[in-house]
Amino acid sequence: MAEGDRRAARNDRPAAGNRAPAGIEVGPVRLRTLTLIRWVGVIGQAAAVSVVELWLDFRVPVVPCLVVIGASALVNFAATVVMLERPRAARLGERGAALFLAYDIVQLAALLYLTGGLQNPFAVLLLAPVSVSATILGGRPTMALSALSIAAITTLAVYHLPLPWREGGLTLPLLYVLGIWAALATGIVFFATYAFRVAAEARRMSDALAAAQFALSRERQLSALGALAAAAAHELGSPLGTISVAAREIAHDLPPGSPIAGDVDLLISEAARCRDILARLAARTDDDDQHFLWLPIAAIAELAAAPHLRAGIEVVFASGPAPGAALPQPTARRSPEILHGLGNLIQNAVQIARQRVEVTTRWSDADATMTIADDGPGFPPGMIERLGEPYVSSRRDGERHMGLGIFIAQTLLGRTGAALAFGNRPSGGAEVAVRWNRVILEAAGADSPADPAAESLMER
Questions:
Q1: Counting runs of H as helices and runs of E as strands, what totals does the chain give?
Q2: Cβ 348 vs Cβ 424: under 8 Å
Q3: Which of 85, 108, 349, 453 qualifies as a FRET site for 69, CA 20 to 30 Å off?
Q4: In the CATH scheme, what is the code of domain 216-293?
Q5: What percentage of residues in the chain have a pLDDT greater than 90?
């Protein structure tokens, strides 16, 4: 993919290197979110102890339990004070968030120790901090918290106070307790792995879409430069004309042999030069914006490929109607989505090809297809099904690639109604086919579809 696209892509793991004053890390995790989750836990724990002691009349060590719950409340108050006094500390990095969640595991383990250990049904809540970590943190903190949780349930399986009960108490068989331990350990590993992979995929997709949006924004800015230059030429033309007229009048009124006569002549010549430059610029931008705003699809392919041509690689363009086609070659708006999307695909082909890249455009009465083929090594067979996903690269060399080029191309071209198909040619080399419905292609890039039929097709 393009170097600019690689720079636009972001890492899919939260950064944890920046620090705010007082040693508090700055990162993507909001301290307020974690404190709210802990407040819910504190309220729930206090309610559970109260119900068991007062309503169910079970013998619970109330004072030690309230001390453990109160410790979490005090930590939350301290965190709230920090957020109010130092707003920059309102976000935590991976290390700070991991320590925050580690405390929750230790606090809940202490409360379970006082109320029956793994025999307490609320032991399943030890899964919560690990699940939160897997959602918002990276792999190492999640593995560390998973190990801490497994160590906690292992300790609770052996060491704990009796489960509160009215009379006689309740002692579960050792085999059943081991079953609870195995279920919790399996749940910790499963939920941590599953939640981490889903959250990481969501972050990767979000970053990839941001890179695609950045590429589209950059292409639109470049496309807007022509209109900006034309506007500048028209706006500057009038004051330059005034300067030229005033300079000629001054030259006419100067007496012979005036010492400033040379300066006035220079001013007149430079004003005329600026006027000529602006006239050429306005003519060129008007010509680009008006006459070449809509182009045949084959011409758009050549325009998209122009920035990516390089010595040693022959790029051959071919076009023609499909058998039985009665309509002429379709035209499309020279939109940033089409130009950048096709440009990315052609750039990839040029970079991978050994000697030759073929860009073939065919059209029928129903659709238009552009095929980009190269004589390189082709796509790895096991990767063809994944092409188009973010951070998947088909490169076989040793260089590191972010794998966003094809994703960006597919995303941008998809906005114009195109569908992409990837494959390998029997003679060797990779092949990408871009197909548009003809009605959608000729409406793509316009402010609105050309007709109700096109609008209906684009909505589908």
A1: 13, 9
A2: no
A3: 85
A4: 1.10.287
A5: 13
